[in-house]
Specification:
By secondary structure, the protein is an alpha+beta fold. It is built from 15 helices and 6 strands. Strands 1, 2, 3, 4, 5 and 6 form a 6-stranded mixed β-sheet that branches. Bound molecules: iron/sulfur cluster.
Length: about 325
């Protein structure tokens, strides 16, 4: 058995059992690009609603290119890794002049990596390429019993069917997401006849284990400056970590000072908020401070206005705590 023959079992299995995902309908290059960028760091079940809303708001590349960056970031709010949204917005402006039909054309677009480029060429243009996401890497590493993922990609691509090759490429992704999972269900697998690590009982060795870096803990006091019924917010500068996203005012604290703050605020109606971004884990504790003047570094908005702004995920949770308090206390904020 080889991948050449096994892939037909994979195709049959995929066509019979593939999940109904919205981006699989009408997979034009724009829809594939958006879905693949959304899926880069987010689970498919979470992406479904975002994708559907996105396509209602920006049904074509033109609508996305013409939208303001604030509108785009607001639509992305909650998905995290906002550089993906900024890159998509930039890509849309470039793609107005036409969609590339080859690998080099796509890879030159910021935010499009080898996986996304191949996914677009496969799903939208039906070219015989394999899109190697982490799931496919796991499948092929086990199937060929190798740590050399480049070689595994070449092997699979060399034998890839020229008839609807996108069904095989997508079948590999689906297999990795549902059957060849970290703890695989080999008895159900359409590739098991030719899978070398299944045959040799070496599945646990593949793929190579990645050493995950522990995120760095960052502790912050979040000061909610309140001027009458408005709150001070800060828009991050383009070069900062949360470029163009809004936050309340933050003050860095040592772990010790942060523990003291929580101790002092044990009767506070606010709760600690935790969020992660890139290699950081943020510990945020909000505190209200009424102010008699408008701080020049901040923009002041009512809570209703704040809801329309794109916030970082941690600060969005704080905004929702503020809103809940507002409703509970029935105050005129
Ligand atoms: S037989 Fe098991 S290890 Fe091999 S590809 Fe299938 S699920 Fe993965």
């Amino acid at each position: 058995m080889s991948f050449k023959t096994d892939q037909e079992s994979l195709r049959t299995w995929f066509l019979a059992s593939k999940r109904a995902l919205p981006w699989r309908e009408n997979p034009n290059p724009y829809r594939v690009l958006v879905s693949e960028v959304m899926l880069q760091q987010t689970r498919a079940d979470v992406v479904i609603d975002y994708f559907n809303r996105w396509m209602q708001q920006f049904p074509t590349v033109q609508e996305l290119a013409e939208a303001s960056i604030e509108t785009v970031l607001k639509a992305w709010e909650g998905l995290g890794y906002y550089s993906r949204a900024r890159n998509l917005h930039q890509a849309a402006k470039i793609l107005l002049s036409g969609f590339p039909t080859d690998y080099q054309g796509w890879i030159n677009i910021k935010g499009v990596g080898p996986y996304t480029a191949n996914a677009i060429l496969s799903f939208a243009y039906h070219q015989p390429v394999v899109a190697m996401d982490a799931n496919v890497q796991r499948v092929l590493s086990r199937y060929f019993e190798t740590f050399d993922l480049k070689w595994a990609e070449k092997e699979a691509t060399k034998d890839l069917s020229r008839e609807n090759p996108e069904e095989i490429a997508e079948g590999l992704i689906e297999l990795g997401a549902t059957i060849c999972t970290p703890k695989p269900f080999c008895e159900l697998c359409p590739l098991k006849k030719g899978c070398r690590s299944f045959f040799n009982h070496t599945i646990a060795n593949y793929p190579a284990k990645k050493i995950l870096k522990k995120p760095k803990s960052v502790y912050k006091k979040v000061i909610l400056f309140q001027y009458e019924n408005r709150f001070g917010v800060y828009r991050s500068k383009p070069k900062e970590l949360f470029a163009d996203l809004y936050r309340f005012f933050e003050k860095d604290l040592s772990p010790h000072a942060y523990q003291n703050l929580i101790y002092e605020q044990h009767q506070s109606p606010f709760k600690e908020v935790r969020s992660t971004a890139t290699t950081f884990q943020f510990f945020l504790f909000p505190v209200i401070e009424k102010t008699g003047f408008l701080n020049q570094e901040l923009e002041f908005y009512t809570l209703t206005e704040c809801l329309k702004l794109p916030f970082t995920s941690g600060h969005k949770k704080i905004l929702h705590q503020l809103l809940a308090l507002n409703l509970k206390q029935d105050q005129e904020w």
